[in-house]
Amino acid sequence: MSKILDLRERAKKDKKRIILPEGEDVRVLTAAVFLTKEGLADIFLLGDRGEIQKLAKKNSITLEGITVVDSLSHEKLAEVVNTYYEIRKHKGITPEDARDAVLDNLVNYAAIMTKMGIVDGFVAGAYYTTSSVARAAIQCFKLDKEIGTVSSSFIIELENCSFGESGLFAYGDCAVIPHPTSRQLVGIAIATSDTYHKLFDVVPRVAMLSYSTKGSAKGSTTDSILAAIAEIKQKRPDLVVDGELQLDAAIVPEIAQIKCPDSDVGGKANVLIFPNLEAGNIAYKLTQRLGKARAVGPILQGLDKPCGDLSRGCSWEDIVDTVVVTAIRAQEAHRD
Predict the structure, then answer these.
(1) SS3 302
(2) What pLDDT is stored for residue 214 in this prediction?
(3) Which of 76, 84, 130, 327 is 20 to 30 A off residue 222, Cα-Cα?
């Protein structure tokens, strides 16, 4: 049974309010109907009410049980605009600029509604780029001071796979930080491990990946990884982490016995931290497309409110998975 699909039962037990600011996309409407019928979340669709209803009618979609928020006539619009203005006025914006920002970019609108507690989280990216989604979250939410950086992770699940946690992995960072410093690698590793543990109650075993295993090659990248590991062990001595490790040494027990026989992580890593964005993004897409893996994300991390990004090539099922993960993260945030 898929561990990602198992998350749906947790989502049902404490339904959260998730807003989707791309209500004029048929994939979003299809996902919203499924999520509502299955009782996985209380869905809010944000956009032009008339256009949303027209699209629904064209595709024989019934929006019963879904809250449609018209961006122009919403009763909280003035409050949304003012909240955005208050958190951005130090950048020199005017109230008119704030209104334009939330109406021209509905991800900002959704982020502010999340900040205000009208909803518990947002998911976007079917139309908007990752940079737009991340920017809205960073501007509107507070940074988690322990993590210290905003990053992303993917939950990856492969069928009939003996690696990781029976094919279940977390990958980070695959969407936000192009060239992480050692300090940023610390934040990525801790946040991705926490995401993985809170979603699946599995002990993270973290591999800091490289082209080198335990000094087999030298370079600035490996130095940065070693500095990050030292800081992680100081900040989170309970976290099982090792590196630098090549991918085969990290996940294949037989290779680990040869390359890093004394490693607590070698051959059994379930959280993979990539040295840069290029490696992470390529790896997740290769795993998803060639390995036919289920991939959920990017999950944005390091902020005080939950939100999820989507690939613009996502299916409606991908949207469902990301909403479910965002809802569970909202459950966990309320417990904290």
Answers:
(1) coil
(2) 86
(3) 130
- Strands of 26-167, DSSP E: 42-47, 67-70, 121-124, 151-157
pTM of the predicted protein model? 0.92
Say how many domains are in the chain: 2
272 DSSP β-pair partners: 171, 207
Q: Does residue 294 lie in a domain region?
A: no
- Find tokens 């809802």 and name the residue: 327
146 has pLDDT over 80: yes
Q: Which pLDDT score, from 0 to 100, does residue 336 have? A: 60
Judge if 159 and 129 occupy the same domain.
Answer: no
State which amino acid sits at residue 26: V
Q: In this structure, how many other beta carbons lie within 10 angstroms of the beta carbon of residue 165?
A: 20
Instruction: Verify that 155 and 272 share a domain, yes or no.
Output: yes
Of 199, 188, 169, 333, the closest CA to residue 275 belongs to 188
What lies within 8 Å, CB to CB, of 28 at 6+ separation is 20, 22, 45, 126, 316, 319
Q: Which domain holds residue 251?
A: 151-289
Q: Which residues of 275-290 are buried (b: 16+ CB within 10 A; e: fewer)?
A: bebebbbebbeebbee
Residue 330 in any domain: the answer is no
User: What CATH number does residue 253 fall under?
Assistant: 3.40.50.10750
- Confidence bin at 219 (pLDDT 50/70/90): confident
